[in-house]
Amino acid sequence: xxxxxxxxxxxxxxxxxxxxxxxxxxxxxxxxxxxxxxxxxxxxxxxxxxxxxxxxxxxxxxxxxxxxxxxxxxxxxxxxxxxxxxxxxxxxxxxxxxxxxxxxxxxxxxxxxxxxxxxxxxxxxxxxxxxxxxxxxxxxxxxxxxxxxxxxxxxxxxxxxxxxxxxxxxxxxxxxxxxxxxxxxxxxxxxxxxxxxxxxxxxxxxxxxxxxxxxxxxxxxxxxxxxxxxxxxxxxxxxxxxxxxxxxxxxxxxxxxxxxxxxxxxxxxxxxxxxxxxxxxxxxxxxxxxxxxxxxxxxxxxxxxxxxxxxx
Length: 312
Known about the structure:
It contains 11 helices and 10 strands. It has helices spanning 46-53, 55-82, 112-133, 135-142, 145-152, 158-172, 199-206, 238-242, 246-258, 267-274, 295-311, and strands spanning 2-3, 28-29, 86-88, 93-98, 104-110, 175-177, 183-185, 190-195, 209-211, 215-218.
């Protein structure tokens, strides 16, 4: 304890303070207490307070949350049933133009690898749907451990997916250019690819909704430089010959020779014609005879050579 007069610490059983002599028998001061910090009480208000105070209301709220989550799961499940996968075929159409300007052609293919990557699982489900409708397809699916194993796979190989995509394309997808306009093309021409797909039948059989809008394309990338595309089987008009420059006349004659595999001594000419897929050089100049040319070609070469001679 402490003396209240001088503040010194003294024995607890003291009657008089040994320091100042004051009577301390009935008048002692306890040791100071350490203060403790306590956060003020925060009152819970609003909806939380109502739930704490009313257990019934709290239970109802929890039930509503659980019911809402259940309804969401049901909606997602129903969506997977009624919302059919959709494939836009134009996203997988590949058209490539080849050949020389004025005599080009179009090649068409489908990007089955991209289709497999985007819709592989949908295609596999389509086979499963088809087997439920078509007895023949059912027998194929049921008798094929490979197809069954694919259907249960979570991670299929790329080869598996590609095979499904190719099979789907071969069975359901077809089309062609309008009026077979896929040859005799020139840069800048416009051609239209027309799909031949029974979308309703595909939807019924496979559960896949196909979107296929006819696609208009502009021809580009054909090789330039050929003067007369048809000079090997059509006579060239005199007006056309007269309109050509000397260089173009020589080129028109050379291209006829090039079609027969003539090996040009001039390196630039060899390099120029080598860019065309139809040029196969195999006849040396000393082995090339006029008899190699057909009658049309011979007349065209003679007419152009005469025009060159006339201009000298």
